[in-house]
Amino acid sequence: MNILLTGSSGQVGHALKFALIGTGGVIIPLRDQMDLSKPDLLRATIRKVKPDIIINPAAYTAVDQAESDTDLAYAINSIAPGILAEEAKRLNAALIHFSTDYVFDGSKSDSRGDITPYTEQDIPCPINVYGKTKLAGEEAIRSIRCKHLIFRTSWVYSGFGKNFLLTILRLAKERDHLKIVNDQWGAPTCATWIAHTTTEILKQLKKSDNSENWWGENSGLYNMTSSGITNWSEFAKKIIQLGLNCELLSPPISQIEGIPSSEYLTKASRPKNSLLSNKSLEEKFRIQSNSWQEQILNCLNTEFA
């Protein structure tokens, strides 16, 4: 099984580089060989490599910047996934693509007004350019009808790159007081867990008697996040608590003050509810999501050793 991996400089792509070892032959092109904003280059590289599976964690993820850098965000998040799907179909290959909770507006709740998780059957309604471009990428893949898996993730972090966990660990050493939003809810998800879960699904494919039947039965859209629910403020507090326990931080450290998002204005609107249900992933692939707290602890213990 030859695998073409994009976005290896991003959090999920970086984690996949290591998680995929032993799964098959993994080809990782350099950025100038597979720039997702350049369709002709993208097609040429895929046709040269002739992969069995394309894994695409690459994305334009600068949420606020996307509001003004719309053309590039659409090129990478919307047009490129469609090209990947077309080339996969042309080769009778498969595409694994990663999307986001930001395809929703965050307004879902039950009759009592309590937050409830989004499922794959809920109708998307993005409220920022990033979410709109990611949704368009999903729709392009589905319309082309190649063999595919689309995984929606949320609040991704790791010990690599730029993310909320690393920012809080840094700021906890620099400031005595931090104001963090406490009215946006979701499930922080470690990139390493995403990568290992994706690899486990590929192992199930390799064990199948008939790969065409496997894709026929399993192609589709799935949520892939940790379990549980928290907000950004509580997420920050847990990072600091576990950072102290793991001796990555030492007193004195920042005190966290929760604030409403109305006091922390950003260029792009964020959904209040980013919670995704993992029921379909668990039932289809027999994979159990662990808690967001456990994922943070695992990350700190393994990626900062």
Describe the structure.
This protein is an alpha/beta fold. The protein contains ten helices and twelve strands. A six-stranded parallel sheet has the order 2-1-3-4-5-10, with helices on both faces. Helix 1 links the parallel strand 1 (2-5) and strand 2. Helix 2 (39-49) packs parallel to helix 3 (70-91), helix 5 packs across helix 8 and helix 8 packs across helix 10 (292-303). The longest helix is centred in the N-terminal third of the chain and has 22 residues, at 70-91. 43% of the residues are buried.
Helix content: 40-55%
What's the story with the biggest beta sheet?
6 strands, parallel
Query: Would you tell me the overall average pLDDT?
Result: 96
Please mark out the parts with pLDDT under 50 across 5 or more consecutive residues, or reply none.
none
Radius of gyration: 19 Å
Break the fold down into its secondary structure elements and pairings.
Elements lengths: L1 E4 L5 H9 L5 E3 L11 H11 L3 E4 L13 H22 L2 E7 L28 H16 L2 E7 L2 E2 L6 H11 L2 E5 L3 E2 L2 E2 H17 L3 H8 L1 E4 L6 E2 H14 L9 E5 L19 H7 L6 H12 L2
Parallel strand pairs: 1-2, 1-3, 3-4, 4-5, 5-10, 6-9, 7-12
Antiparallel strand pairs: 8-11
